[in-house]
Amino acid sequence: MADLRGTYSTQIALVLQRMKDRDVNLDDLDPSRRNTRNVTLMGVERMKLPVLNTRTVLSSTGTFITEDVAGTKNSVNTSFTISNTPQVGSILLFHNNVAVKKVGGSAVSGEFSISGSTITMGLAPDSSDSLIAQYVVA
Amino acid sequence: MAWVTIDLDGTKNGANTTFSIPLTYLNGTLTIFHNGAAVYILSSGTPVSGQAVVMGSNVVMGIAPDSTDRLWCRGYET
Predict the structure, then answer these.
(1) A64, A91, A92, A134: which to substitute to probe chain B, counting the most B Cβ within 10 Å?
(2) Side-chain half-sphere CA neighbours of A82 within 13 A
(3) ipTM of this complex > 0.85?
(4) Are the beta carbons of B70 and A101 separated by less than 8 Å?
(5) How close does chain B come to A72, measured CA to CA in Å?
(6) Which one has a higher pLDDT value, A49 or B48?
(7) How many Å apart are CA B53 and CA B2, to the nearest integer?
(8) How far is CA A33 from the centre of its chain?
(9) A95 to chain B: which residues are within 8 Å by CB?
């Protein structure tokens, strides 16, 4: 997703970021609390700005990102993508909560390689596996 | 300067616990992974399983890695 801080005011972007950080979704809030809890959130709603869901990624250079890696997990596919190109070496990848080592060449089990925003796993994740990346946006 | 991921130097034989970090890293940025699990880093004392003592470029693991274990670190190289 585009960097909202370049589109809306810094304050609005910060609110959206805080909502994301806290896994807050306006639809999940009780309407009465929406009216009293946080005037800023009301402001966001009144302005009918797009509300981010918890999986939306704000991307701008230097931003620290944690996200689900996108791609088909079927025990066969080893190619996945992340939303941005990370700063060199900044990425940490967790497969079922276990850190996977980044390598420069061909990856084997327990390893992965990355080119741009494309990740190649040494071991194809199963459909129920978790695959999470943490990185700093380049 | 950049983040670097690299294997620790040393003999993995189920007995040796002393390794070295082939990296000059920014203080506080080092993470050690043993078979993918982050190792808790102590600055002194006697490490137990899941822990390591790091003093400069030297690492003493609380448990000796086996030959097939993966032992690597990640730090911000200075």
Answers:
(1) A92
(2) 30
(3) no
(4) yes
(5) 23
(6) B48
(7) 24
(8) 28
(9) 36
